[in-house]
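Hi R.,

Here are the chain sequences for the assembly we discussed:
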Amino acid sequence: QKEVEQNSGPLSVPEGAIASLNCTYSDRGSQSFFWYRQYSGKSPELIMFIYSNGDKEDGRFTAQLNKASQYVSLLIRDSQPSDSATYLCAVNGLTGGFKTIFGAGTRLFVKA
Amino acid sequence: GAVVSQHPSRVICKSGTSVKIECRSLDFQATTMFWYRQFPKQSLMLMATSNEGSKATYEQGVEKDKFLINHASLTLSTLTVTSAHPEDSSFYICSARITTGLYNEQFFGPGTRLTVL
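And here is the predicted structure of the full complex:
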C-alpha cells in the first residue's frame, strides 16, 4: 500500500463546476496535510494546508480532513480552465522524522 | 508564502561534466532542505534530505557519490550532479521546510531542468 494515494485521473470537469480531489494516507500519526498545484513544466505550489479535522476554506478552495478515515480532500468551486493542473496531496507526520510524503498527483482538466 | 529560489533554471551540458544547482531560501532560514527529481509525467521523487551543518540523508537507490549535497548555511543548499550522463536529464526541484511549533510547511523552488547531451 502506498503511503499517500491519489487517483491519477485525469479528472475532467466543466468550467464553473466543483472539482473534488481525494487523497488517502496510511500513517495514522500524520499531523499536517497539504495540497500543492503543479502546472506542466513547473514546480509545485502550495495552495492549502490543514491540520485539524473538518473543513478549511480559502477563496474557491476548501480542504477537508477526516483523520479517523485517514482521508483528505480538496474542493475547487467555480472551476476555471486556469485550474487545470496536477494536484499533489502531501502528508507530514512523525514517521520518518517529519518527512513529507507526496502522492503521485491527480491531473485535473477544466473544460471551457 | 515563503520564497525559495533555484539557480540555474535550465542547464545543458555534455556527458561527463559536473553540474551544480543552488537552492536558496530568500526570506527565511531553513534548517532542512529537500532535493527532488521529477521525470516527465511522473511524480516527485525525493532524492535526499539536507540538514544544515550535517551530512545529507539519501533515499534508497540514490547514489550519494553521484549527487553531492552541501548545506553550508541556513539559506543555501547545493546539489552537484557529478559526471552527468543522459539518464540524469530531469527536472530537479529543491524544497525548504519551515517549522512552526509542531507543524511543518514545505515551499518549493522553481526547479532546474537539466539536459545532458
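The first strand of chain B starts at residue 4 and ends at 7. Chain B has a mean pLDDT of 91.

Let me know if anything looks off.

Best,
T.
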